[in-house]
Amino acid sequence: IWTVGNLSQIKLGEIMAYLNSCIYGLMIVYGRKLRLDTKIHPFKTIAYTLLFVAPLVILLGIVLQLFNISILTPVITSLSFMSIITLLAIAFFSTVLTFGFFYFGIEKVKPQVASILLLTEPIWVTIWGLFLFGQTLTLWGILGIAGIIFAVLLV
């Protein structure tokens, strides 16, 4: 269960979402340049990215806790063997595999095309959730997927 405490947390969430889009833009432009200039393997690029980003995320979490600010607080009731396996699967499919394809792909296409293709990410997450984790697709999910496809085709 995810809870939002107050309006200031929502505003902070909007700021974080804006920063996320800026970081994605930088990743597209500079990730492509890095791949073309150095020919580093995509998974090595992921390792460097995660080694740089993970400490920043931990630091951000510590700073937010010092000010008693949490954007979304997950309620974790137990950490069983299956939940650990599930978390590892989510980490692999949502980070390692997707960013591997991302860094491989931005070497092949222009940054403009890569940024448009990134808009389809929620569709792929939904597909992985359906097949790997047995999630169900609701009417709102189908309408959301259709809206994303329509918006991408417009561009």
Helix content: over 70%
C-alpha geometry: globular
Distance between the termini: 35 Å
Q: Average pLDDT across residues?
A: 75
The residue ranges in which pLDDT falls below 50 over 5 or more consecutive positions are none
Account of the protein in words:
The protein has 155 residues and is mainly α. The chain has 6 helices and 2 strands; from the N terminus they run βααβαααα. It has a two-stranded antiparallel ribbon with strand order 1-2. α2 packs across α3. It is globular and about 40 Å long. The N and C termini lie far apart (35 Å). The model has no long low-confidence stretch (mean pLDDT 75).
Q: What is the fold's blueprint, element by element?
A:
Blueprint: E1 2-3, H1 7-38, H2 42-66, E2 73-74, H3 81-106, H4 111-118, H5 121-133, H6 139-154
Antiparallel strand pairs: 1-2
Sum up the structure in keywords.
single chain; mainly alpha; two-stranded antiparallel sheet
Summed up:
The protein has 155 residues and is mainly α.
